[in-house]
Structure formats: C-alpha cells, structure tokens
Amino acid sequence: MNPYQLLDIEFEYSGQQQIITPVLLQDERDTILVDCGYPDFVPLLEAAVNKHGVTLRSLTKLIITHHDMDHIGSLAALKRAYPYISIIAHEIETPSIEGKTKSKRLEQAESTFDALPEESKPQAEQFIKFLQSIEPAAVDQTVSGGEWLPWCGGIEIIYTPGHTPGHMSLYLPASKTLIAGDAVVIEQGRLEIANPQYTLNLPEAVHSVQRLLEYDIEQVVCYHGGLFHGDVKEALQQLVHAYQS
C-alpha cells in the first residue's frame, strides 16, 4: 500500500480555477488527513477520499500544517461531524486554531488596511471579514519541531516557520517524502516561496527552506502544486540561492 495519496481538489475561488492538494496517509490502524481546505469543503474532501476507497468517517487523525483559511477552513465542520478525529497542530499555531488568539494572517490584513489605496479597501474589508469568519476548533495534540509521530511508517515534524510563525512540514523517512504544506509551492515547475509578499517573515521562510536541505528528500508534495517533478535538492538549493544573492 502506498503510504500516502494526493487529494487534488479543483475548485473556483475569486473567479479563478484553483487546485489544492491535501494528503491522505494510511496504514493498518490509521487514516490521516493533512490539511482540509477552505470552509464548506467537506463534500469536496469526501469526494476526493472516496476515489481512494476511503470515507471521511474512517479518518482517525487530522494534521494541520498551519493556520491559514485554505488549510483549516473545514476543520471545525469535520470535528463536529466526526468528533473522534484527533486534531494535531504545532504548539505555536494552536492558540489561533482554537480561537484563543487572533491569527497572524488576520493581524496582517488589519495592520495593512489603512495604507491601502481607497479602491482596494472594499476587497480588503471583504477579506478581513472572511478571515474573521473562520470557525475555531479544539486541538487534541500539540507537537513541536523534531517530534516523531509513530503513525503510517513514521512522521517527523519539521518546524518550518516564515509563512506563519508555527508552520510545520512533515517528513516521511520510509519514502523520503516531504509534505511541505506552504513551506514551498510549485510555480511553473519550480519550487518557490509561497506568496512572498504575504509571507509573515520572509528571511525565516528562506531559512526554513535551507533547513530542508538537511533531509534526504526524494519527493516533495506541495499544497499548492502537488508532487514536484525534478531534483529536489537542486531545486531547494536554487531557491535559497535566489533569495540570498
């Protein structure tokens, strides 16, 4: 059995066709979903997992790479429908996911609002209201960088901050696979920093990419872009060099 499956979910957002790629991990005991899309994505997730002979009801765990609306939007709905699913997130992101603190993305949107040109403010207001509407959900298990999770052949948590303060990626050593979340994305066949203009700490994000070079990675799965095709180490080195030169 392949230890992971890519769930390519196509949808329309802001008038554009988009694709996100949550990941399904499986072994004899666990069925684990990594990230869960925008709000109201439960039907799309159900259809995606059904293609692999799985139902959402069979999920045992849900790992969240970070607090962003396209990664946690359906978290509360899933937890409400299937309360036995264990939610796992990085300790730094957990207060925002649970609604105990304001998310950094919302803080960013609010702090830059006054500097926007007047014609951009209506759209920014709509975006802020959308971020405010993201429903919080309780996290069952917090993790930190370097932690080992003994599920689905073993999962190492890699702390990859920058995009958000508590962003994490998952390393599957058995298949030498990195589930990158938004630590990197694929654009025109290349690995890139995700939305560098909105990355909360760009130097830290680049340092996180550099940290990934310490791992023996043969495959990278990006939430935006899917499976990377090419020499992973060379692509990561090129990305770091592009920002350091």
From TrEMBL:
Instruction: Give yes or no: UniProt keyword Membrane.
Output: no
Statement: the UniProt record of this protein carries the keyword Repeat = no
Q: What are the record keywords, sorted? A: Hydrolase
> GO molecular function, one example?
hydrolase activity
Top-level taxon of origin:
Bacteria
The record's section on Pfam families has:
Lactamase_B
**InterPro entries for the chain:** Metallo-B-lactamas, NDM-1-like, RibonucZ/Hydroxyglut_hydro
Q: Which reaction does it catalyse?
A: 3',5'-cyclic CMP + H2O = CMP + H(+); 3',5'-cyclic UMP + H2O = UMP + H(+)
Q: Where is the Metallo-beta-lactamase domain?
A: 19-224
Sum up the protein's function in the record's words: Counteracts the endogenous Pycsar antiviral defense system. Phosphodiesterase that enables metal-dependent hydrolysis of host cyclic nucleotide Pycsar defense signals such as cCMP and cUMP.
Q: Name it.
A: MBL fold metallo-hydrolase
